[in-house]
TrEMBL record:
InterPro entries assigned: Coa4-like
Gene Ontology annotations for the cellular component aspect, listed alphabetically: mitochondrial intermembrane space
Source species: Seriola dumerili
PROSITE patterns noted in UniProt: CHCH
Gene Ontology biological process: mitochondrial respiratory chain complex IV assembly
Protein name: Cytochrome c oxidase assembly factor 4 homolog
Annotated segments matching region Disordered: 1-21
Length: 83
């Protein structure tokens, strides 16, 4: 039986990539792909600063919301703190 071709896009490699999974959970995946497409097209990160900034803003908003969510889950009393 022949090995699958590395160019066979029917395999779901992206779903197995932990970075891709992490970004997709943030809601910023489309912006990430926009940065990648710009970089592939222009081969110069300086040309892609608008895409990079938009992606960065999205990620920062996600991180802020996540931090706020985690803070709400923290116990508000000091009962669990060691004495």
């Amino acid at each position: 039986m022949a090995s699958p071709s590395p160019h066979d896009r029917r395999r779901k490699d992206d779903e197995d990539d932990p970075i891709e999974r992490m970004i997709s959970r943030t809601g910023c995946a489309e912006l990430h792909y926009s940065v990648q497409e710009c970089m592939a097209e222009h081969q110069d990160w300086r040309v892609c600063q608008n895409q990079v900034q938009t992606f960065k803003d999205c990620m920062m908003n996600f991180q802020k919301a996540r931090k706020e969510q985690l803070m709400k889950q923290q116990p508000t009393s000091t009962e669990s703190a060691p004495s």
